[in-house]
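Try it yourself: sequence plus zinc ion, in.
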Amino acid sequence: MSTPFPRPSTPPLLASGQSSPIPPNEHGLGWPAKSTVSRLNATAEERAEREKKIAGAVRTILECIGEDPDREGLQRTPERYAQAVMWMTKGYEERLSDVLNNAIFAEDHDEMVLVRDIDISSLCEHHLVPFTGKIAIAYIPGQNQLVLGLSKLARIAETFSRRLQVQERLTKQIAIAVQEAINPRGVAVVMEATHLCMTMRGVQKPGSITVTSCMLGCFRTQQKTREEFLTLVKGR
Ligand SMILES: [Zn+2]
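Structure, out:
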């Protein structure tokens, strides 16, 4: 089944000779940019050079906000931040095909599989501040009887959340990744998150929660299946 969401074609990034049930064009990073690929392939020296560049930029920010980057508490902040932001965006270095490696099984199970309350923290691409929340992922295996190792649903969510995101796209990317990995009858993803860009600046609405969902296949076409999913997500 194809998804209703068009996407740019992505270059195959899997090393030649490896095989995987994911179609070749879907290997890799989701929606990569040119610089994503160069980061993925960076040598240790190139990586150090990147972090140095980020640290220089952070020093500029500190100066511009009216701070003294040379005062004791801030001296190592640029380097620390450079390392932190590389970690917080490490999803750009993870190939989905590696994440899912050896975790797709044939299993005689045709009922819904649901993992909920997966903690997520990501960075909003508009303000580069965090949004955090919980995500639930469900699927119903297809005729191929393929299932995913349960921990892999959380790993898929982790991979995509460690990139710059908007919540709507994060939700979609996770659903499409599951769809492409095992071609189930349907996939459902729902995410609830609090955006610091909303709660600590601008409109300042503390406690506001943004909910996004993505329904594919039978979750999209069958109201009963969708309702069962939503009941299970709420059942806590
Ligand atoms: Zn934002």
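One thing you can check immediately is this: Residues 61 and 67 are 9 Å apart (CA to CA).
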